[in-house]
Design a protein that fits this description.
The protein is mainly α. The protein has one domain: Methane Monooxygenase Hydroxylase, Chain G, domain 1 (Up-down Bundle), CATH 1.20.58.220.
Amino acid sequence: MVTRKKFDYEINHLKKDIGEMAEAVSETVHTMEALIKHPDVVQSKELVEHDKYINELQKNIETRCLSLLLKQQPVARDLRLVSTGLKVVTDLERIGDQCADIAEITILTKMDDLYTKLPHIASMLDHIVEMMEQLTLAVKNEDVELAKETRQKDQKINILFDKCKKDVVMLIKEDEGNIDYYLDFLMISKYLEKIGDHIKNVCEWIEFNETGMIDNFKLV
């Protein structure tokens, strides 16, 4: 009984840590959005530093998960939760990395023309921020239905990214002297698209934690 109580204590801490990491990443996404709209060198550097904090959260959670696997050897639902934790923090960490990459671009590249040259960027940002907010709630509340709803929105991000790619091709054809400038815009849209993918991945792992199913296959 004592062993089970200790295990439950560790599991509850694991859930709490993952929720805190999701909140930290959501904060980063909001900051990234602000930097695209209003570039600021100081704030960009702060975001990069904040990403190091997210990396530390990932390492701590991974350590907790591995400790649970080795010492407690969980099975069934408990094993799913620990496995989900390992996968979720990887995707959350990648979202933080991509926000930091975007922040660095805003330092080096003028953002004045971004919204006029790539009008679909604004919609991509709106969807990403909304998805990240919903994801954070889904993680903290273990809300499978919200995770499913959020996952579906990644298709909108993919469609908008395709439109951005086409816009960049046209811009380069019309203004070959500024290829690097437009490629930076393309990279921003690509990072946003990848953030959408990682949010979708986390949503799928939330579903897996509840059902044991992923991609219509029963795993655990």
